[in-house]
Write a structure and sequence with these properties.
This protein is mostly helical. The protein has five helices and no strands. The chain has a domain of about 90 residues. Helix 1 packs parallel to helix 5, helix 2 packs parallel to helix 4 and helix 3 crosses helix 5.
């Protein structure tokens, strides 16, 4: 699947469309607070299938510092082999976090951290030389 496609073969809205709809439906402060808790690389991965104007709408919520870091992560990810399952898993976690934020959930882990997507390994994996 190339990164320009916007829908899965299964039909229905693409995950990034669900994310955008949810962000639009939430109060700005709730969406911003949740997005600020998402790891930069995970947020960049959520933006990979979006059109540039959609990406900028989400990045604008993150503020200038995080926005810069997310753009840098996105430029690296665009040149990385990412499995669709990695993308889908990550965006589903972010959607879940936004839903929990809209219903009053704290998103805190057992040790009190508020990291939205928890511990995730690197997206960068060594490959054999060609």
């Amino acid at each position: 699947m190339n990164r320009q496609e916007t829908r899965r073969d299964r039909g229905g809205p693409a995950p990034h469309d669900e994310l955008l709809d949810l962000i639009r439906a939430l109060p700005t402060v709730d969406a911003r607070n949740t997005i600020m808790r998402v790891r930069d690389t995970d947020l960049a991965l959520c933006l990979i299938y979006m059109a540039p104007s959609q990406r900028e709408r989400v990045i604008a919520l993150a503020g200038p510092g995080k926005g810069r870091r997310v753009r840098e992560a996105l430029s690296r990810l665009l040149h990385t082999r990412i499995l669709y399952q990695q993308y889908e898993s990550t965006i589903r976690e972010v959607i879940l976090a936004l839903n929990e934020g809209s219903t009053g959930g704290t998103g805190r882990t057992a040790n009190g951290r508020t990291e939205t997507t928890g511990r995730r390994g690197s997206y960068y994996r060594p490959t054999r030389s060609r």
